[in-house]
């Protein structure tokens, strides 16, 4: 793993009425997706939402652990965990949700 790649832990909630990336009550990231947890649909939507919220290309975001679990470890190439958290909080505008 390169120095600028960092792992972010997220909890995915498939079949949500609204797609969003938010900071949960425990301080962890929660990604709500419309897609069901079948055939990788929720994973693809999760990665696309995170890439958009972080302002990076989809190719720079990938799941390294938890392909079939709601708890996932996401690798973001080129961002530290602090940079990623700051970008998500800035996009959330103080309400805890990045869209």
Write the layout of secondary structure elements.
Elements (H helix, E strand, L loop, with lengths): L5 E8 L6 E4 L5 E4 L8 H14 L6 E5 L5 E6 L4 H12 L4 E2 L1
Parallel strand pairs: 1-3
Antiparallel strand pairs: 1-5, 2-3, 2-6, 4-5
Describe the protein's architecture and organization.
The chain has one domain: Conserved Hypothetical Protein Mth637, Chain: A, CATH 3.30.1200.10. The chain is 26% helix and 29% strand. The longest helix is centred in the middle third of the chain and has 14 residues, at 41-54. The protein has helices at 41-54, 81-92; strands at residues 6-13, 20-23, 29-32, 61-65, 71-76, 97-98. Strands 4-5-1-3-2-6 form a six-stranded mixed sheet, covered by helices on one side. It has two helices and six strands; from the N terminus they run E-E-E-H-E-E-H-E. By secondary structure, the protein is α+β, with helices and mostly antiparallel strands.
Characteristics:
2 helices, 29% strand, six-stranded mixed β-sheet, 6 strands, 99 residues, alpha+beta, globular, Conserved Hypothetical Protein Mth637, Chain: A
Strand content: 25-35%
In round numbers, the mean pLDDT is: 86
- The order of strands across the largest sheet is 4-5-1-3-2-6
CATH topology: Conserved Hypothetical Protein Mth637, Chain: A
Describe what is shown at a glance.
By secondary structure, this protein is α+β, with helices and mostly antiparallel strands. Helices cover 26% and strands 29% of the residues.
């Amino acid at each position: 793993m390169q120095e600028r790649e960092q792992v972010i832990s997220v909890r995915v909630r498939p079949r949500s009425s609204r797609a969003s990336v938010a900071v949960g009550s425990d301080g962890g990231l929660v990604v709500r997706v419309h897609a069901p947890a079948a055939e990788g649909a929720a994973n693809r939507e999760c990665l696309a939402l995170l890439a958009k919220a972080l302002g990076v290309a989809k190719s720079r975001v990938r799941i390294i652990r938890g392909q079939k679990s709601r708890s996932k470890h996401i690798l973001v190439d080129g961002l530290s965990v602090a940079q990623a958290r700051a970008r998500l909080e800035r996009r959330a505008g103080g309400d805890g949700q990045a869209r």
